[in-house]
Specification:
Length: 201
């Protein structure tokens, strides 16, 4: 005796509505940034990110290739967040900015995990280029001196971002004094390049 007439039809498979690539990318980046702010980096995994973002696991690989591809996009987004919010900024602004600090720590962590440091070299417009141009405007320093100063400032900012918890906090008198010294050194860039003969062509 056939029972097909009494068997209820299978429920239709409910598929998630397809999310446009641009929206999926933004959702994955924003979710990852939020998670990195409060969780150890090692616990921010592909599965946890996509689950939190409400996307299928394949969305991450489809849009970024890999977790490290997503982290690279996150690093760029964090820098964009900072530069779009600050038309002008000082070294102290950079040192205390949560987006810059998170970006620097993330890159240091990725490199510590075996990531290629070259992948994070700035291309085109970058913080170093901005600092160099700013020094030329403020001090009249040559491009060579301005670039050298920009590299020094970048090393200081990145080092402090990674190791800030092992040093005095922002607001400590010693850090304030260090900022005063930096600003005074900045004012003397033109004189220093004259001493070095860098102004001679």
């Amino acid at each position: 005796m056939s029972t097909s007439a009494s068997t209820p039809p299978a429920a239709p498979i409910r598929r998630r509505p397809r999310v446009r690539s641009v929206d999926a990318r933004k959702r994955l980046i924003d979710t990852t940034i939020a998670m990195l702010r409060v969780q150890p980096f090692s616990e921010v995994t592909t599965r946890r990110i996509t689950k939190q973002a409400g996307l299928p696991l394949s969305a991450l690989s489809r849009n970024f290739g890999s977790l490290y591809g997503l982290f690279d996009a996150v690093a760029k987004a964090l820098l964009d967040n900072f530069t779009s919010a600050h038309a002008e900024y000082t070294a102290l602004d950079v040192l205390s900015n949560p987006d810059v600090v998170l970006r620097t720590r993330l890159i240091a962590w990725i490199i510590g995990q075996g990531g290629d440091p070259v992948a994070f070299r700035p291309v085109g417009e970058s913080r170093s280029n901005y600092i160099a141009e700013r020094q030329q405007r403020l001090t009249g320093a040559s491009p060579r001196m301005a670039i050298a100063w920009a590299e020094i400032v970048t090393f200081i900012v990145e080092g402090y971002a990674v190791f800030s918890e092992t040093h005095r906090p922002i607001g400590d008198p010693a850090i304030s004094d260090a900022m005063v010294v930096m600003f005074e050194l900045q004012k003397s860039l033109r004189d220093l390049e004259l001493q070095l003969g860098w102004n001679e062509n």
